[in-house]
Each structure stands twice: as structure tokens, then as C-alpha cells.
Amino acid sequence: MCCDLKRRFLLLYATQKGQAKAIAEEIWQQAGAHGFDADMHCMSEVDKYNLETEKDPVVIVISTTGTGDPPDTARKFVKKIQDRTLPPDHFTHLQYGLLGLGDSEYTFFCNGGKTVDRRLQELGAKHFYDTGLADDCVGLELVVDPWIDGLWLALKEAFLMQKQKEEMSSVFSGVSCSLSASLHVVNELNLSSEVQSLKLEDERAGSSDILSQQLVGISPVASARDTKPSLVHSVPPLSESALNIPALPPEYMEVQFQDSHGENPHLASLISDGTTFEVPITKAVHLTTEDAIKTALLLELDIAGTVFDYQPGDAFCVVCPNNSSEVEELLCILGLAEKAEYFVSVKVKQDTKKKGVTRLQHIPERSTLKFILTWCLEIRAIPKKAFLRALVECTSDAGEKRRLQELCSRQGASDYTHFIRESHVCVLDLLHAFPSCKPSLNLLIEHLPKLQARSYSVSSSNLYQPGKLHFIFNIVEFPACPTRRVSRKGVCTGWLADLVAPLLHPNKPTLDTKGGNSSIAKISIFPRSNNAFHLPADPSVPLIMVGPGTGISPFIGFLQHRQKLREEHTSWEFGETWLVFGCRHHDRDYLFKEELRCFVENGTLTHLKVCFSRDSSAAEVAPPKYVQDVLRLYAKDVARILLKERGYFYVCGDKKHMADGVSDAVVDILSMEMESDRLEAMKILATLREAKRYLQDVWS
Asked: Any idea where the FAD-binding FR-type domain is (predicted)?
């Protein structure tokens, strides 16, 4: 090695939900074993690092949020480097490696990382290691693990090159050019041999990381007749393989039980994103029939007594709890049911080996255990591999321990993806599947992420209905399966459905024990403005709206707003409006059927095109089944509006099964109408996106 001291590098992370931070912490943990000192900071802590004077290599881990935006913790950093007055050599001294996190279900995949990467390059910074882009759609670990593995050699080579430059600089200052040229050759040879020896060291270190175990026999939790893998059972070659498992994450939280007297904090104190409003639900309506495949509800909120404001196209967030039955079940499994109402204090362990740990901001300083599990922690979260690794140490049965090791190992990546990620397994499912696993409370608090508020599109106009806010949603259903013993509803949609049951079924007896009418249900919300997904500022501009299923939500607000503007400004010119809506059955889930008919009759909606994917037709020419098929039928109109009339195109709904198909259809239409190749049409679509004239509000 070139020196005995650990070599420092700057490690920056920018996270929205904690994934980038967790990966940065994994890098920090591994750094010491490879001879490095990772100086780790959140990107928002601009007072703790200075890239303008940074001489050591920089490693950046950054996620993406919203519609391709950098996370909140990176906003100041991005704004600073986006300053167009900075010279192109501003960061010529900087060498860095960047790992971007994203989800290919969304259009602007890893755009947070790409934005930072591109701008650093424009300012003269150089890569010492290739950029990695990890996809949460297929599993971040597929890119993250090998990227981290390759980081150490890249860092060593960067430091050796840095050392060589320093030596060459001193040589040039004291000797002739000819002598320095000779030394340059010698240094190149020395560098080459050092790099080769480092490669060998890394290979040896890698092999020592393999966990050599005595092979475990058939696990008691699985039948010996099992020939297919499952959550609790593996098959060869995995069941007979030595395993590379992650390092055990150090514990860093300390939980102390106190008395059972006092009050829990207000929900508003849990939200760091701005002002929270507690508003009553004044109406609930079934939008689908009982025999529809999905159940869609419309809720009305009374915001008249608040300063909450919104535009059609905006979204807002609902603060929701975990399912109470699941919380009670978890308390029972942990053996803490009797302490549910005890207040607990959660603090950072004084002797923790985890670097840079601060108090968890989403855990109140003082609240009951039940409150924490209900309102603060995402108990439905898919367990990360670091969590599985920690659970190994809490498991007494040898077979169960081995299976958990497999699921968090590199060799078990496929099983992890299939039986954990894709099956939406949560901590409750794991504790049922591995009954000898008895984790501590502090372990759960450390590894379960913050319970996130759920986002919904506004389905109304404040101009059309002052003081009211409407939104719609499908009640999400997770059926029982081999990895999940019982069916479950979505965390927020299931809770909302239960909450408004008295409004949906006013004559049905409730469990209200107070007598009389049940009190009006209230929920806590906060705004999440959408800076782009709005109506054009110029009302004469034509627009096309594509929203199957609940994707129609923002467009109802658009049409309400447009109708009110038409009533108030009779002299204004209004462009044509197209709505393409799709659902399964005309008589089961045709949402807002009567409202849409009225919009057409009063001239607010110029063209309404509807398709039904599951209805049979006796027509000689089969009608279109999907919204993208409808668009192709009206290809000339789509091309005219986008290319000649500078119109706007909006898409809202499911990303994977709809939005991608719509963008493909638009590319085909542009290619056909312009008589150009597909690549040229894709460039036109990219230009429309850049100009904010092709806009998406999609979810996976």
C-alpha cells in the first residue's frame, strides 16, 4: 500500500425517503476495511464541506423524486451549481464518482443524478469512476452492489494518480525536463505494479468476505418434498452455496420505556414539508358499481375554514396511519402488547459505531409505543437487505437463519427480488414466516422507514366549487398469497374507505359507542403543488387529455375550471378540448359519466372519446379497447394540435400499462404524419416534454 494512513474521500448523499442515505452508510461502513476514511455528509449540510476547495475524491449518492426532480435535500446544492455565471473551469480540480437512484417506471429515470452529473461535467469536474444508475423497478441492488464493489479499486487508482502528479510536480520544480521524463516512465511502471498488487489485494479481500458455513439441512419451516423455492425454502444451487452477505449494520438507537401518562404529539408535528391542515370529509360517493373489478371512491373535503389553496392539476398529501389490526398484531409478536400505551424515549446510543447519526426526526421525543407504530413507521415497507441481515442475528432456528442469510446475500439476489420485492412482503410477513426471529424494538425503529404521507391528484376547481376539494382513488387490494397469509388493503386507501363507511352507508349501524350520530371524520392534509401539470395560461390553446380509470381525476378539475372561465369571460376565445377516457366496462366503471355528458352539452368539452377494454362488441369493425388505440384513430387531429397549433398534451394514470403505450402511440403518430423515421419523431416528443407541452402525472 502507498501509505499506512487511511485516505480520506468526501461522501455526499441526497435522499428523499432514506434509500440514498442507507447506501451512503453502507459505503461508509465498508470504507474502513478497504483503507479509506469516508467523510460523510448530507448534501444539504453545505457548511460542512466545500467543493470549491475539495482536493480529495468525491463520491455522490443521489436519488430522484417527483417528476425527475432532485430530492429536497439537494435543492440548494443543485441551485448553486446551476448558476450560469460560474466559469467552465470552476470544478477542474474536482474528481468524483456518482451513483444515481431512480425508477424506470417514470419518464425521467435517475434525473436527479443525471442533472448533477451533467452540470459537474460542464463545470470541468472529471470522473474517477463511471456513473452508476440504479433502478428501483428491478432492484437497486443489481447496480448498487457491483458499483460499490468496484469503487474501492477506482479510489485506490485515483489516489495513486494523485500521488504520481504530486511527485511529478516536485520533480519538475527541482530537476531538468529530461530527468523528469525518465522518472515519469519509472513512476508509470511503479503505478502499474501498485495497481496490479491492489487488484490482487481486492480479490483476496473479496474472497475473505465469503461467509463459509456448514450447509444447513432441510429447514423445519419447509416440507422435504418442496422442489421449488419459496420465501422460507431454497433449492440448489443456492441452498448449497457459500454466501456473500452484507456487513452487520451497527445498532444506533436506544429505546427506553417510561410511564403511561401524558398526551401524544399532534400529527402536524410529524410533517416537515410545511403547514398541515385538519379538514372534515363532508361527502363520499361510490363511483363504481358493486360488481366492478376495482372500487373507486370520490371524497369531498371542506377547506373553507383554512388558507389551503390549489390549482386544478395540483396534488396534495394525506397523513395516514398504519392499519390498527396490523399494529396490534405486531405488538403481540414482539411481546409488547401490554406496553402499547407506555411512553417511550428514543435516543442515539452513546457508544454506537454508526457515523453521523442524529435523532430520528420522524420519531417524536416522547410518545407512546402504539403511536410510533401507528403514525411514524412504515410497517408495510419492503425490508431492505440490511434489515434482513440484522434479523439473522435475532433468529434462533438454524434453517430459518440460513434462509434469511440467503435472502440478503449476493447469491440470493433473484430470490430476494421474487419473494420479497415483487411479493410486497413486509415485516409482519417475515415474522410469521420465520417464527424463531425475535427482533428488538430498537431494531425495528432503526430499519423501518418513515411512514410517508400519500399523494393524490385534486379532482376539482376552487373557482367552480369554492371551499371544496375533491379527490378520487381506487381502494388498493393485495390478495392473500403464499408469502402473505391474509389479504390487505392499501395503507391509505383502506383507511380512508373505513373512515367514510358511515357516509357511504348512512343507514348501516356503526360501532360508535357514544350514542347518537358519529362525529364527522377529519383527515390531515398538506399541499404538494405541481409546477407544470396545469392548464395553459392562454385559454385559446387547444389541449388533449388522456386519463383512463382514476387518471381522469385532474381533468375533471380542468373542465370545471374551464367551464367557469367560459361563464365569466364570454368574450374570451377558448381552444378545443379533447378527453380520451378508458375503463373496463361501460356499465360498471365509467367514472363521471353524467358530468362528462354535461361538459360536452355546454361546450366546455369539444371531443369526448371513450373506450371499454372488457366489453364485447358485435360491430363488424371492433372498437378501440385502449386509449392509445383511440389516439391512433385520430392521428391527424393529434398531429395538428401538437405540431401546427402548439397545443398541450396531458397524460394521467398508470405508468407501466398505459403512459408508455400512449407515448409510443404519439411517436408513431408524429412519425406517420411528418413522414419521418421514428427517431426523428422521438426527438420531437422530447422537445414537447422540454417545452412543458407534453405533461405526465403518472404512478407505478
From this structure: 274-536
Cα–chain-centroid distance for residue 338? 35
Whether the Cβ atoms of residue 99 and residue 144 lie closer than 8 Å to each other:
yes
Q: How far apart are CA 286 and CA 591, in angstroms?
A: 10
* C-alpha span between 365 and 337 (Å, rounded): 21
Rounded Cα gap, residues 380 and 361, in angstroms? 20
CATH topology of domain 253-447: NADPH-cytochrome p450 Reductase; Chain A, domain 3 (1.20.990)
Residue 494 CA from chain centroid, whole number: 21
Q: Which fold has domain 7-165?
A: Rossmann fold (3.40.50)
Query: pTM to 2 decimals?
Result: 0.80
Cell of 130: 463511471
Grid coordinates representing 14 are 441526497
Question: Is residue 112 within 8 Å of 73, Cβ to Cβ?
Answer: no
Cα–Cα distance list, 606 to 190, 226, 528, 534, 669 (Å)? 75, 60, 30, 19, 21
Q: Which residues contact 659 (CB under 8 A, 6 or more apart)?
A: 107, 651, 653, 696, 698
Nearest to 286 by CA among 474, 513, 96, 144: 474
Distance CA(165)–CA(154), nearest Å, equals 16
> Angle between the 678-690 and 660-674 helix axes, to the nearest 10 degrees?
120
Pairwise CA distance, residues 147 & 132, whole Å: 7
Contact 554, 461 (CB under 8 A): no
Cell of 112: 436527479
Topology of domain 543-698, CATH: Rossmann fold (3.40.50)
Distance from C-alpha of 63 to C-alpha of 71, rounded to nearest angstrom? 6
- Dihedral of CA 558/561/563/566: which sign? negative
Contact 106, 655 (CB under 8 A): yes
pLDDT along the chain (700 residues), means of 10: 69 90 88 90 92 95 86 91 94 96 83 94 96 88 90 94 75 49 42 38 39 37 64 94 89 89 85 84 97 97 95 95 98 96 92 80 91 97 94 97 96 93 95 97 94 95 97 95 92 97 82 51 87 92 97 98 97 97 97 98 98 87 92 97 97 88 96 94 93 90
Question: Cβ(297)–Cβ(592) under 8 Å?
Answer: no
Q: How far apart are CA 456 and CA 434, in angstroms?
A: 36
Using only C-alpha atoms, the chain has a radius of gyration, in whole angstroms, of 29
